Amino acid sequence: MTTADYPYRLPATDSADVLVVGAGLAGLHTATLLARQGHDVLVVERRAGLAGAIRTTGIFVRKTLDDFPLPPECLGPPIRRVVLYPPNLRRPVDLVSSRDEYRVGDMAPLYEASAASAAAAGVRIALSTRYAGRHGDTFHLAGRDGPTTVRARFVVGADGARSRVARDLGLDRNHHLLVGAEEVFELPGSDEPPTFHCVLDPTLAPGYLAWVVNDGQHAHVGVAGYADRYPEGLRRAVEQFSASAPGLAGVDRPEAVERRGGLIPVGGLLRRISCPDGLLVGDAAGAVSPLTAGGLDPCLRQSELAAEVLDDALRAGKPDAMSAYDGAALRPHFRGRLMLRRGLAQVRTPAAAAAAFAVLRTPFGRAAAGRVLFGDRSFPDAVRG
Ligand SMILES: Cc1cc2nc3c(=O)[nH]c(=O)nc-3n(C[C@H](O)[C@H](O)[C@H](O)COP(=O)(O)OP(=O)(O)OC[C@H]3O[C@@H](n4cnc5c(N)ncnc54)[C@H](O)[C@@H]3O)c2cc1C
Question: Thinking of the domain 13-52+108-174+267-338, which architecture would CATH place it in?
Answer without folding.
Answer: 3-Layer(bba) Sandwich (3.50)
